[in-house]
Amino acid sequence: MKAIIIGGGIGGLSAAIALKRCGIETEVYEAVKEIKPVGAAISIWPNGVKCLNWLGMKEPLQQLGGPMEYMAYKEFVHGQTLTRFSLDPLIKSVGERPYPVARAELQDMLIDTYGRADIRFGQRVARIEEFDGGVRAWFESGHVAEGDVLIAADGTHSVIRPYVLGHQTERRYAGYVNWNGLVEIDESIAPANQWTTFVGEGKRVSLMPVAGNRFYFFFDVPLDKGLAEDRTTVKADLTRYFAGWAQPVQKLISAINPDTTNRIEIHDIEPFMQLVRGRVALLGDSGHSTTPDIGQGGCAAMEDAVVLAMALQTNSLGVEDALLRYQEKRAYRVKDLVLKARKRCDVTHGKDMNVTHSWYEELKSETGERVLSGMRETILGGPLE
Ligand code: FAD
């Protein structure tokens, strides 16, 4: 069997590695000549980590992950701790730890595991069609590829999604802007072994350790879409939005490098239950586009890859049947993740400030139990024990 994989991001490469591991021939096509991930880092939660372990990347992943042992929320004016707890009970109950990692390093690990020379960079798919017994993809370069199955891992702006769904989808603006980047660890801003989040006014400022003595930082601010702001104004913008916030937040704003700080208007797509059509499967953000509020978009793409490989490996009823089994296993899971993230997004970003204030109050009495039990439920919904 031969699989054509469109997209060389987290989803496409996880799928390519998974299928190769199951003895399926793969061809990966990536539109750009050099992948520049839209974001500085990503937290891989234990459900995603288990998938990468299954794909043979356990040791390299451990090298990339930051030592995130604790989690803390702080109020925004004085930086006083609202709650702080160990992640250990979570790790013990799900059997793996989370790893915050720099995106470029994650991308390199996936590329090296699959084989850099085997990825066809600079090949943008224009359209696809199925024929009796196979599927064909046309590229803007004029190249044509044929396979038994096609995996569309071409991201949130997928050109293949309308073929599968039979209609176009709209991206929904989630109501906030996220700035993110990497900065050298400074323990006067936050402890080096902790995921620290300052909350107030429906905004947040968060820091997570990644390998190499760096913090992954992000700032979220509820804002209108389409403002005239970019990297050139980032320090002034953040200084304005976070005026009156605690000293560590001011220090972080001074420390960041505007040239490597990303500004992203956060979107998702209303979940849909159809992930496959015939011999074509959506995987990763093409099939489920979520806000990053529970850090599960990339992890879900890794889960998709594992489930897809398992389904295709046991395909005695044919490719179409295997894809339907993939859809059956994934559609509810990914819908649940998108909707959970949306709910979390609204509470965090002050969609109704009364609800957001109640959450700030709740954090004062949080022992870790409620937060960790929500995370545990999400993590244990993944495909691997
Ligand atoms: P993409 O990463 O978008 O990759 C798609 C690839 O397909 C790209 O390389 C693109 O060039 C290529 N492509 C597109 N069109 C074509 C075409 N026509 N032909 C050929 N190739 C094409 N997830 C987590 O798990 N944890 C987190 O902490 C987390 N934090 C996030 C923070 C932010 C601010 C954002 C925006 C997202 C976050 N996510 C997180 C989500 C995660 O980044 C995505 O879910 C993940 O990158 C999706 O991977 P993908 O491979 O499906 O899509």
TrEMBL record:
Keywords: FAD, Flavoprotein, Monooxygenase, NAD, Oxidoreductase, Purine metabolism. Its EC number is 1.14.13.113. The keyword tRNA-binding does not apply. One of its GO terms (molecular function) is urate oxidase activity. Residues 2-338 form the FAD-binding domain. GO terms for biological process: purine nucleobase metabolic process; urate catabolic process. It catalyses: urate + NADH + O2 + H(+) = 5-hydroxyisourate + NAD(+) + H2O. Pfam families: FAD_binding_3 (PF01494). InterPro entries: FAD-bd, FAD-dep_Monooxygenase_BioMet, FAD/NAD-bd_sf, HpxO. Its cofactor is FAD. Pathway: Purine metabolism; urate degradation. Belongs to the FAD-dependent urate hydroxylase family. This is FAD-dependent urate hydroxylase.
